[in-house]
Amino acid sequence: MASIATASVADSPYLVALALCEQGGRRLMPLAGRSQQVVAAGGEAPEVLGHALALELLLRVWQRSDDGALSRAAASSSLLLVELPMDALPEQLPALKADWLTSGDTDACLLALKGIAPRAWAMSVAKFQPVALTPLW
């Protein structure tokens, strides 16, 4: 059974699902996030909240498809779930997003993300399987 820890909102890490995608020659990084009331123990993934955020994110991406075809911009690293400290939200995450949207340097984006996110997972799914959260670091 998974170990969990309850945290106050102030010191609880924020969980963010993000997509690195392209549409009509433009890069997009839609986000969905929530603070965690229950934090998964080290070595474990926040599956319940992670799956909810994946659904929310993918519904946003799906709605954007009305504006044209979408494609993944970073292969298997295009759908990510990251755990961020609350203080990274107002400045570091927006700066990282702006840098990637401007430069398109996915390796630099992932490296910068690793610098602010203590834990991250790639999201994927296989036929007849639930969403898988594979640790990136």
Number of domains: 1
Shape: globular
Distance between the termini: 22 Å
The largest pleated sheet is described as:
5 strands, antiparallel
The helix-strand sequence is EEEEEEHEEHHEE
Order of the strands making up the biggest sheet? 5-2-8-9-10
| Average pLDDT level | 90
Q: List segments where confidence is low: pLDDT < 50 over at least 5 consecutive residues.
A: none
The computed structural class is alpha+beta
Q: What share of the residues does DSSP label as strand, in percent? A: 25-35%
Description:
The chain is α+β, with helices and mostly antiparallel strands. It has one domain. The protein contains three helices and ten strands, in the order E-E-E-E-E-E-H-E-E-H-H-E-E. The protein has a five-stranded antiparallel sheet, with helices on both faces. Helix 2 (92-103) packs antiparallel against helix 3 (106-116). The protein is globular and about 40 Å long. The two termini are 22 Å apart.
Summarize the entry for a quick read:
It is built from three helices and ten strands, in the order ββββββαββααββ. With 137 residues, it is an alpha+beta fold.
